[in-house]
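Run log // design_07
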C-alpha cells in the first residue's frame, strides 16, 4: 500500500485594495477629528471653557460613533439592532447629564 504524500497548496491572494483604501480613509477621518480637537484645545481661550468642553464632548461622541460603526460593523447591521443599542445609550447619557447637573446644583447650594 503506497502512501501518497502531497504538500498543501498555499494560494496567495492579491491585496484587497478596496478594503485597504477604506481602512486608510477611516484612519484619515479619525485623524482629522483628532487634529480638530487639538486645535480647539489650544485656540479657544480659557474664558470659553464651557464651550470648549461641549465641543470636546460632541467630537468624542462623533469619534466613538464612527469607531463603533466602522470597526464593530454596527453601521452595516439591521436598523433594529442599531436602535436597540442607541436608545439605551441616549438614556444613559441623559442620566449622566442629569446627575452632574444635580450634583453641581447641590454643591452650589441651589438645591
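design_07 sequence
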Amino acid at each position: 500500500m503506497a502512501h501518497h504524500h502531497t504538500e498543501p497548496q498555499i494560494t496567495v491572494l492579491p491585496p484587497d485594495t478596496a478594503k485597504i483604501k477604506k481602512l486608510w480613509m477611516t484612519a484619515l477621518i479619525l485623524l482629522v477629528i483628532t487634529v480638530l480637537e487639538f486645535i480647539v484645545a489650544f485656540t479657544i481661550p480659557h474664558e470659553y471653557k464651557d464651550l470648549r468642553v461641549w465641543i470636546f464632548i460632541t467630537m468624542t461622541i462623533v469619534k466613538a460613533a464612527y469607531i463603533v460603526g466602522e470597526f464593530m460593523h454596527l453601521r452595516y447591521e439591521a436598523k433594529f439592532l442599531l436602535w436597540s443599542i442607541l436608545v439605551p445609550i441616549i438614556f444613559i447619557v441623559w442620566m449622566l447629564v442629569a446627575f452632574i447637573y444635580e450634583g453641581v446644583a447641590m454643591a452650589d447650594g441651589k438645591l
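The chain has two domains: 18-76, 78-111.
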